Amino acid sequence: MDVLELLNASHDRFFYVLAGLSFVLELGLLGLSGPLLFFAIACLVTASLISMGLISGWEIEILVAGVLTVIITLLLWRPLKHFQNSGGSADTSSDMIGRLVTASGDITLERGSIRYSGIDWTARLDANASEVVINKGDQCIIASVDGNIMLVKGPQPESD
What we know:
The chain is of the alpha+beta class and 160 residues long. The protein has helices at residues 3-9, 11-30, 35-51, 58-85; strands spanning 100-105, 113-116, 119-125, 139-146, 149-153. It has two domains: 3-85, no CATH class; 100-153, CATH 2.40.50.140. It has a five-stranded mixed β-barrel with strand order 1-2-3-5-4. The relative contact order is 0.10.
């Protein structure tokens, strides 16, 4: 049995394989950006409809897969983008957190810089910092990391 006969005999398997390949490509190469994810879901639904005997014939199956791709895209585009843009909290796993560093520029809630390990890093005040500004040359503590931005606060006063 050649490939064309196999495809003609089992349309549902073709769509299941197509869905699987689309999922793998989406997650492996595109990083859940959307386009192939919506197509993969549509192929999975189409394959299920074929398996249940609700649709048959290449023309109808391809039409259903296309229409479902559009519908799924319209339904899931915003929630997926919202999920992707929700970010998360600042990183608390960096080995830089807790380090005492020197401000290489004035640090405010919007901008600033610190010097750590011979490199100037972009910094800004942590939301929980009690200071309004940390002046250039003052010591501060790295509280968390947000991407490549260090969130800092002033050193805690020593208690006796």
